[in-house]
Amino acid sequence: MAVAPDTAADLVSRIFDLQRVVRYVANASFRGMDTGVAVQGVLRFVGEGESRATHLAERLGVSAPVLSRHIADLEMQGYVTRRQDPCDGRAQLVALSPAGVEKLRQIEELRAATLQDYLSSWSQEDAEETARTLARLTNSLKLSARATATGPITMTKTLQEH
After folding, report:
1. Average pLDDT over residues 20-41
2. Which of 37, 82, 122, 161, by CA, is between 20 and 30 Å from 111?
3. How far apart are CA 159 and CA 6, in angstroms?
């Protein structure tokens, strides 16, 4: 059964509200830290494994110059390392340094503790159900975005695969 237009519009509105609140909470929780929220996001993506800077920019949805500034900040703080890509000497690979691994761990622990505090009135079951729903929504949107980017044939194939 398809989602009704009014329901889809309500969901979009709630997602944007959630984004704003998450940004607000992140900004409030991390004031005074040596890395801003945007740089922390870059740190998290770099923490998923060594990657080309151009690939990171694409995944983060930012321009190469913006990402380059964030990576330079992180490198100056000792949280990331850069090296030439052995497959393409023009490209750079970015990875976390040991200090970056530790910093990312600290950030993720603080974020989890902050959220745990904010959700103190929730039950474990409520939190688990919300996590499952958000994971399902994220996966559906990723699949739809990939299908749209590759054209209708892939989308039809993707729908049939599920």
Report:
1. 73
2. 82
3. 23
